[in-house]
Amino acid sequence: MLAAAVKALSQILSPPMRSILWRSIGLALVLITVLAIGLQRLLSWFADTGEVWAEGMLGPNFHSTLHVLSWIVSISAGLGVVLGGIFLMPAITSLVASLFVDDVADHVEREHYPADHPGVALPVTLATIEGVKTALLTILVYLVALPFVLFAGAGFIIFFLATAWLLGREYFELAAMRFRSPDDAKAMRKENAATVFTAGLFIAAFVSIPIVNLATPLFGMAFMVHMYKRLSGPRREFEPARRTNVSSV
Length: 249
Known about the structure:
Blueprint: H1 2-12, H2 15-58, H3 63-87, H4 89-112, H5 124-145, H6 154-176, H7 182-191, H8 193-207, H9 216-232
Helix pairs in contact: 1-9, 2-3, 2-4, 4-5, 4-6, 4-9, 5-6, 6-7, 6-8, 6-9, 8-9
Protein name: Sulfate transporter family protein
Pfam families: EI24 (PF07264)
Organism: Bradyrhizobium pachyrhizi
């Protein structure tokens, strides 16, 4: 597994991957910027509206106090958006990964597994659906874990473990679906749940590093292509043909 991680790290900076890397980073930055601006404006609107409502309830004598509180809330909202962008990075990279899955996998398969049958490119709709589902699941799990952040860092541990499970699940299934139907890919992931989760810990660690985590879609996909090949065994030429039907989670 460590060897697979090293191979993935070395390849994301190789010349054939640089174009994908820059496109992936560019799209992730756009999504983060749009998210940050949208959240900041929404929270600022709530702060201004709350100030007006509170002044109407308490009277003009509290105007100065309420204005200071609104200013503090606005600053806190800005900081919250920054922290939110950090915590939502796994969700953002899940969406980005769904768009570049085949480009990355093709490079890895050609360089490291030239004798194997190449994978079949995933339909854009299928890959996008998988990315959106993972992003929504990530946000849901993070919202559930958020209250535990106040308890001795338990929330951060939950965040990390949840990220490992979610991203390990997504990247492995995306790699497997190039060779198998969605149902078969999910079944294979469940049969190797412990291994996939452990591999997901590597991706969770990678996505936890600021700036570097912008390359998570490339590292995660390259890494899981290696893991899929390893778990498929030496007789990969008999891999079941992939069907393009979309199955449920």
